[in-house]
Structures are given as C-alpha cells and as structure tokens.
Amino acid sequence: MKAPSIGTYLFTSISLLVLLGITIGASFFDLGPFNTAVAMSVSLAKAALILLFFMHVRYNPGIMWIFVGAGFFWLGIMLVLAMSDYMSRHWR
Known about the structure:
Layout: H1 6-27, H2 34-54, H3 62-88
Helix pairs in contact: 1-2
C-alpha cells in the first residue's frame, strides 16, 4: 500500500478550498434552475476528493472499493425507500 505524500495532502486541501470558493461564489449568482446542479456538482467533487485521498480509499486494494460501492448501493436503497414513502403520501 502506497502512502500519500505531503504534496498530495496539500494539493487536496488547496483543491477543497478552491471548490469552497466556487461554492461561495456561485451562491451570489442567480443561475436559475442550475443553482442546484452547480451546488451538487461541487459537493460531489469535494466528497470524491475526501473519500479518495483523506480516507485513503485510492491507496487500498480492490476489496475496499467493493465495500465502498456496497455502502453507496445501500445508501441508494435507503434513499429510494424514503422517497417512495414520501411520494406515496397524499399531501393536501
């Protein structure tokens, strides 16, 4: 298992700060229906950086990727079940 270097942590931290700046900057502009898409895209990029580098998933063997995928699959199941419950209710 290869350990990440200080440069990797520095690059990841600076990237997260840049993405934070993009998030803050985008909040001042009215992008219409794209507000949510921009916010979700930036948050997905930040989550990927944190997952890959700070949680060391990138440097672990393939079995770790299976467990990470299983966790996201389970999260998807929970979201589908929650949304099916929400959509089946008849709100007035």
